[in-house]
Amino acid sequence: MATVGVIGAGVMGKDVALTCAAYGYDVLLCDSDADVLASAPGQMRRRVRKYRMMSPAVAEWHADDVLGRVSRTGDVADLAGADWIVENIVEDPEAKRELYLRLREVCTETVRVAVNTSCMPITRIASLMPHPQRVIGMHFMNPVPLIDGVEVIRGQHTSDDTVKAAEEFAGSLGKRPIVVNDMPGFVSNRLSHLFMNEAAFLVQDGVAAPEQVDDVFKLGYGHRMGPLETADLIGLDTVVNSLAVLYDEFQDPKFRCCPLLKKMVDAGFLGRKSGRGFYDYTTSTAGAR
Ligand code: NAD
Questions:
Q1: pLDDT-derived band at 24, boundaries 50, 70, 90
Q2: What is the model's pLDDT at position 44?
Q3: Is-above-0.85 flag for pTM?
Q4: Which of 24, 25, 228, 239 lies 20 to 30 angstroms, CA to CA, from 250?
Q5: Does domain 3-181 have CATH number 3.30.1140.32?
Q6: Can you give the pLDDT at residue 283?
Q7: Cβ–ligand 1 contact at 192 (below 6 Å)
């Protein structure tokens, strides 16, 4: 079976690794933080348990089999022989740039690289690589095992062959690819970050409590989750970083980040991953929303 190198073992990397392994790929999970890497298997096992209760497809997964196909490394050089690399490190342009400058020494001309970013231009990242035609955006959505769609982003250099391979790769993971062209934030995050940011302004301005904002979306518009629940799920640090990228790229004030979001990140209220964001996830009713 083909091998997938997954770089970044955070919120997204763990779920991408689980999904690839569940669909039969051998996975090599890479993170620069040894503690993150050490705790990953335990967290991934707990996630399988949780997702099994939420999806009939995941209910078929067997944690031992899935985790048995996942190895770990702290060195990206070990990913040299992978068929696909799915990169999921922090949404920080300088961190991504440094990583790709390292990856360009590692990747052979047979590997294809899927960039999982919320907002960063794929073309700029691909330009750092020796074979930019083999680089494509694959914006997996959170939580990866439960979401059917993957936004596939064609960069300026991406070849038709790589687009086709990405569509097949997504299909092999049980996902439906939606192919769009490269522009910061693509379709999903250019829209969603506007409403998450404005929702934070509504709370900051005292117009409504988080529950009320989210209930308007759920009860009024029939959305499955409200914007602030979504922001907590994504991670408020990632939302703030993504807004910074959008603001920087478009130079448009509509993407200026709500000060309340920055204050919450400064306080360590990052959402689900830290136990507290717009909601508290440390109580027994956590996750009810
Ligand atoms: P995260 O902060 O949870 O995890 C990032 C991980 O990358 C951390 O474990 C960190 O140690 C690791 N890392 C940092 N630099 C590294 C390097 N040079 N080499 C290896 N590992 C490194 O972030 P996340 O929420 O998983 O997001 C990852 C990417 O996916 C971001 O670009 C984000 O915008 C995008 N994304 C996030 C979501 C979401 O809902 N969180 C959804 C879609 C896409």
A1: very high
A2: 98
A3: yes
A4: 228
A5: no
A6: 81
A7: no
Strands of 31-134, DSSP E = 70-73, 84-87, 112-115
| Sign of torsion over alpha carbons 229, 277, 189, 101 | negative
H/E element, 180: strand 176-181
Q: Which residue has the tokens 């209760």?
A: 53
Q: What is the pLDDT of residue 274?
A: 97
Is 154 in a helix, a strand, or coil? strand
User: Would you state the pLDDT for residue 285?
Assistant: 54
Just list the catalytic residues: 118, 139, 151, 189
Counts of helices then strands in the chain (DSSP H, E): 13, 8
Say if residues 17 and 70 touch (Cβ distance below 8 Å).
Answer: yes
Query: Are the folds of 3-181 and 189-274 the same?
Result: no
Ligand 1 and 75: CB distance under 6 A:
no
Q: Is 208 helix (H, G, I), strand (E, B) or coil?
A: coil
- Domain residue extents for the chain: 3-181, 189-274
* DSSP per-residue string spanning 261-288: HHHHHHTT--BGGGTBSSSB-SSTTTT-
C-alpha torsion 286→46→168→2, nearest 10: 160
Ligand 1 centroid, distance to 85 Cα (angstroms):
14
Region 49-65 average pLDDT: 94
Residue 243 predicted with pLDDT over 90: yes
CB of 117 shorter than 6 A to ligand 1: yes
The answer on pLDDT for 182 being more than 50 is yes
- State the fold for domain 189-274: N-(1-d-carboxylethyl)-l-norvaline Dehydrogenase; domain 2 (1.10.1040)
Can you tell me which atom of ligand 1 is nearest the CA of 91? 32
pLDDT greater than 80 at residue 259: yes
Mutation choice for ligand 1 from 88, 139, 242, CB with most ligand atoms inside 8 A:
88
